[in-house]
Specification:
Layout (H helix, E strand, L loop, with lengths): L28 E5 L5 E5 L5 E4 L2 E4 L10 E4 L5 E5 L3 H7 L9 H10 L7 E5 L5 H10 L4 E6 L2 H15 L6 E5 L2 H8 L5 E6 L8 H7 E11 L2 H14 L6 E3 L6 E4 L2 E4 L9 E6 L21 H4 L14 H30 L7
Parallel strand pairs: 7-8, 7-10, 8-9, 10-11
Antiparallel strand pairs: 1-2, 1-6, 3-4, 5-6, 11-15, 12-15, 13-14
Helix pairs in contact: 2-3, 4-9, 5-6
Length: about 350
């Protein structure tokens, strides 16, 4: 079945788009929703089955069906079958570090004005959640250069990105090492359109960011605490090569919708992190000084010595957990590739496609 849109061919369709269309295939991840609204995400395999205490559901009853199909397991339990949205995938994928939540990723893409074809650098890959959103935004002909200090995190992110897009993304490149050192070595001065930092101490990167960011380019930082937000803002002001920084946070509250019982949910996604943006000024220009400034902008020696992962509440992830998450992410890529290869070989041999 041809799942391309009119005017597109397999060679010109955006990377990963074909995986979002057409009947459900072996190697794909799908989301099952039961009658109580509970979600389960599985990878389809020929001959496989989804087991619960309420029976099992053969994968073959799903493979070849369109999205939105309702299927029934061996005990009569019904499930709604859909491909996971990006927000669903991010919250269920293997992880070694905390992910950037969809509400923050959406804000980053919009407020940093990430556009198709943009040249973006990112520091702090984590588990690859934000990288997926950035790759979708820059498209096949843009560029996302990600910097990560820990190889285990890079392996997990690579597996998750390849699972989501169905293989390596042509716009993505990962470099292991310290952002401040590597970005000025790998990127030409003034050649980057956007800088996205998700790291412990972004204020240490003002010079590196100012070096590679083009005039008018956007720098956006994601930080967890008020003290990080304050120190980053003051470092940007002190540098003088950026516009006045702008900081905010977003909160998402769902609503209960049932008949006339329409009210806010009792639980919500509240604080996850702060976002701070600034733009690069032209070379030689000096940022305008705000008329109102904080009365105290200096940090004590005690403040400067407090910036450790433990001090800001960042939990250490064990090496064992990281290796396990990396293997899990990699196995999903390999499983999907194997299923796709078998299907391709069957098509080449003229084997009729499973209805």
């Amino acid at each position: 079945m041809n799942s391309e849109t009119p005017g597109q061919t397999a060679a010109t369709a955006p990377h990963g788009a074909d995986n979002r269309r057409g009947p459900l295939r072996p190697g794909e991840r799908v989301q099952l929703t039961d009658e109580k609204g509970r979600h389960s995400t599985i990878t389809l395999t020929e001959g496989g089955a989804f087991h619960t205490h309420r029976g099992f559901l053969p994968h073959d009853t799903i493979i070849g069906k369109p999205e939105g199909t309702i299927v029934t397991n061996t005990t009569g339990q019904q499930y709604q079958v859909l491909r996971p949205l990006l927000s669903d995938f991010v919250l269920s994928m293997p992880r070694g570090a905390a992910v950037v939540y969809p509400k923050d990723a959406g804000q980053i893409v919009t407020m940093a004005d990430i556009y198709p074809g943009a040249r973006v650098v990112e520091a702090g890959v984590g588990s690859g959640a934000l990288s997926i959103s950035l790759l979708r935004a820059v498209g096949d002909y843009g560029s996302l250069h990600s910097f990560e200090r820990r190889e285990e995190f890079a392996d997990i992110a690579r597996g998750n990105v390849e699972t989501f897009f169905g293989g390596p993304h042509p716009a993505w490149n990962i470099t292991l090492g310290d952002f401040q050192e590597e970005v000025v070595r790998t990127e030409e001065p003034g050649s980057v359109d956007r800088v996205v930092l998700d790291m412990l101490a972004p204020w240490e990167c003002t010079d590196a960011v100012a070096t590679v960011l083009a005039p008018g380019g956007v720098w956006i930082s994601y930080v967890a605490t008020v003290t990080q937000l304050s120190r980053t803002a003051e470092a940007i002001r002190a540098d003088g090569r950026f516009t006045e920084p702008d900081g905010w946070e977003s909160m998402v509250r769902g609503w209960h919708l049932e008949g006339l019982a329409v009210r806010p949910d009792h639980r919500m996604v509240a604080h996850t992190g702060f976002l701070l943006t600034a733009r690069r000024l032209a070379e030689g220009a000096t940022g305008l000084v705000a008329k109102r400034r904080a009365s105290k902008t200096n940090f004590s020696e005690e403040d400067l010595n407090a910036w450790t992962p433990a001090a800001v509440g960042e939990r250490e992830v064990s090496a064992h957990k990281l290796r396990r998450a990396a293997r899990d992410a990699s196995s999903k890529v390999q499983r999907g590739a194997l299923e796709n290869a078998e299907k391709y070989n069957a098509d080449q041999d003229g084997t009729p496609e499973t209805p």
